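INFO  loader      accepted 1 record
INFO  loader      residues=268
INFO  predictor   begin
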Amino acid sequence: MIHQTASIDPRATIGAGVSVGPFCTVGPDVVLEDGVELVSHVVVDGHTRIGAGTTVFPFATIGLAPQDLKYKGEPTRTELGPNCVIREHCTIHRGTVTGTGITRVGAGCLLMAVVHVAHDCALGENIVIANNVVMGGHVEIADRAIIGGATAIHQFVRIGTGAMVGGASGVEADVIPYGSVIGNRARLHGLNIVGLRRRGLDKEGQHRLRNAYRLLFQGEGTFAARVEALRGGAGDDPYLAEILAFIDAPSKRGLIRSTTRHGDDAEA
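INFO  predictor   done
INFO  writer      dumping tokens
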């Protein structure tokens, strides 16, 4: 399963059923778990682990040094979960000692062509990132988020569970779980109703979330007062609890709050 033109350091750890195609390069501190496929012309270096069943397409690079002028060659890490698909020309850089020390992509993620995952980013599971998305260092994207093509995400931004970012957006602040943002700079457009339906949320639950969204982002009074009003009526709704926990969590970029008045959810 190893092409004769591939260059694999003998100190690398190669699992069962791994396929390494033409002109790939694998460094000494790399671990390729069972069933990983490097299609061709892939470079994997640094202290990098690629999870079982992941496929990496041509000209992608994983675990190379970060684009951080403070980085001095420290042995920081890169980790990809199982069953990811990394398409052509993606770049996933290792972490830094001034950050978390690791860049992580969770299980089941699809990174389409020319996606850049910078140092110390933390991506959850089952995320879809479309072509030509770029993110600065320390970005956090939670499970099942969808990022539209040609989007730029500022360093330290957090994107919540199940959120949707429309294509060609410039995201400079945090996106609430299940929120839908679009624009340059990105503005909150509503809820990601399509994603919520796919998760099985019934119409009653959708209605409850829409009402909470209107109270939180289109209601009267201060934002802090509206948060407390929502907290008082949240009950045991897990979606509202997740949104409130996201708002309460520390943030270096603040929260995207501006919202359109003509609609309160994203149907596509």
